[in-house]
Design brief:
Layout (H helix, E strand, L loop, with lengths): L1 H25 L4 E3 L10 E5 L3 E6 L4 E5 L8 H27 L9 H37 L10 E3 L1 H32 L23
Antiparallel strand pairs: 1-2, 1-5, 2-3, 3-4
Helix pairs in contact: 1-2, 1-3, 1-4, 2-3, 3-4
């Protein structure tokens, strides 16, 4: 029962983390322009994402342009593209593997194999969390370094966008959920290592008395 609860909780966290990875990958808010030097009245806001860049006017009108060339992107954005897509795909694979080995399904009959399949699903989700954590931290570091670089003009300075915060949340959920799935494997293994042994029952003779061989 305890292992089943760990599986359910871990799977819930991992599914939520995978959805956040897909949202962060699609949103164009990885980098946003910084409002510095007291210039808070601006006519437009610039968003930069993995797939497109958007300009939001003060009137609320927004125009987006898809990146024409992958090679023209910065190295951190190219890496973030690849790793977030891999993380999203692995999230779907991890969900399939985990559901196949979960105790609430009958896809696999043997309990030992089911525990190993769930453990493999947990490892996949941990890899998903690492794949999304690396590009998010890399881009955040580049934004912070560029913001404090005096050689960068104020108009080109950027701040951390919402997609990076979503990516951090997704990585935390994936790593936590994958760890819980792996812990469910060890909890089942520890329980199966100590099987319950029952004492032999006492038999009653024809006369209604207990058999004397049970007495020392």
């Amino acid at each position: 029962m305890f292992a089943a609860c760990l599986e359910f909780l871990g799977m819930t966290l991992c599914v939520a983390g995978s959805l956040l990875v897909m949202i962060a990958c699609g949103l164009p808010t990885w980098k946003v322009n910084a409002f510095i030097e007291g210039n808070i009245v601006v006519a437009q806001t610039i968003w930069e994402g993995l797939w497109m860049s958007c300009v939001v006017q003060s009137t609320g009108h927004m125009q987006c342009k898809i990146h024409d060339s992958v090679l023209a992107l910065a190295q951190d954005l190219q890496t973030a593209r690849a790793l977030t897509v891999i993380s999203a795909v692995l999230g779907v694979v991890g969900l399939t593997v985990t559901v196949a080995g979960a105790q609430c399904t009958n896809c696999i009959k043997e309990e030992t194999v089911k525990r190993r399949v769930v453990y493999a699903g947990g490892i996949i989700y941990i890899l998903c969390g690492l794949f999304v954590l690396v590009p998010v931290c890399w881009i955040a570091n580049n934004i912070i370094v560029g913001f404090h670089d005096p050689k960068v003009p104020p108009a080109q300075k950027r701040e951390i966008g919402a997609s990076i915060y979503i990516g951090w949340a997704a990585a935390a959920l994936l790593l936590s959920g994958g760890t819980l799935l792996c812990c469910s494997f060890f909890s089942q293994g520890a329980r199966s290592s100590f099987p319950l042994k029952l004492a032999p029952t006492k038999t009653i003779t024809v006369n209604g008395e207990f058999d004397k061989k049970h007495y020392v």
